[in-house]
Automatic annotation (TrEMBL):
Keywords: Cell membrane, Membrane, Transmembrane, Transmembrane helix, Transport
One Pfam family of this chain: TauE
Topology class, membrane: Multi-pass membrane protein
Name of the molecule in the record: Probable membrane transporter protein
Native organism: Kutzneria buriramensis
């Protein structure tokens, strides 16, 4: 029951903010299924909910931006899986979390991050997202921060992040052994997506940026906590 509730809550977060699925349900699934099987299910379900979000919002997608942002991660995912076999994953997770948290804080203060712009920004954001995806399925926070810093139109952020996430998730699944599915979890995912879609429609205009920064900061804090306690 806890697993199903976590999956539903994660789907709500993803539907409202455009990311956050793994942040909510990742710890529960990994604790219940183990690192390898839990990660495969997280990335699989994240791909499914991203598709569900994308279908009704595809007209607002910035397709080129989403695919370009995913490109570094697609290239790096297999290499990262290989490199992290013997690495201290806790140290890497803490570093990724600190980077995410610092970026979210800077943007919340109104600062523009020059390094998170242009080709260099795409490579940095895409590569870091791939790293966090391989570690725990959390590809969204850094990509969302890039979108805010690049000032994508608010209506385009949610659907474009789904294009990014689907593309990177497919590359990650190929690298970690293919998809996994649990039909009860899938039903909970659908319920969460429906609730989240209703909430997203009620979200006041202009609040997307604040919500993204809040969820991304939470992702950074969680990554640090997971690295310390892992």
């Amino acid at each position: 029951m806890i697993v199903l509730l976590a999956v539903g809550a994660g789907a709500v977060a993803q539907s409202v903010a455009g990311f956050g699925f793994a942040l909510i349900c990742g710890p529960v699934l990994i604790a219940a299924l183990g690192q390898a099987d839990g990660l495969r299910l997280i990335v699989t379900l994240s791909t499914v909910v991203s598709l569900a979000i994308l279908v009704p919002t595809w007209r607002d997608v910035k397709l080129r931006d989403g695919l370009l942002l995913a490109a570094p991660g697609v290239v790096l995912a297999p290499l990262l899986v290989w490199l992290l076999r013997d690495a201290d994953k806790n140290v890497v997770t803490i570093g990724a979390g600190v980077t995410t948290l610092a970026s979210a804080a800077a943007l919340a203060l109104g600062l523009r991050l020059d390094r998170l712009r242009g080709v260099g920004g795409v490579i940095m954001a895409g590569g870091t997202s791939a790293l966090m995806n391989v570690l725990g399925g959390m590809s969204g926070p850094v990509a969302a921060l890039y979108a805010v810093n690049a000032r994508w139109p608010e209506r385009s952020i949610r659907p474009t992040l789904q294009v990014f996430g689907i593309t990177l998730n497919i590359a990650t699944l190929v690298s970690i052994g293919g998809p996994a599915i649990d039909w009860w979890a899938a039903l909970s995912l659908v319920a969460g997506w429906l609730v989240g879609s209703l909430v997203a429609k009620l979200l006041p205009a202009g609040r997307t940026r604040q919500l993204i920064l809040l969820v991304a900061a939470a992702g950074g804090v969680f990554a640090v906590w997971r690295g310390i306690t892992g």
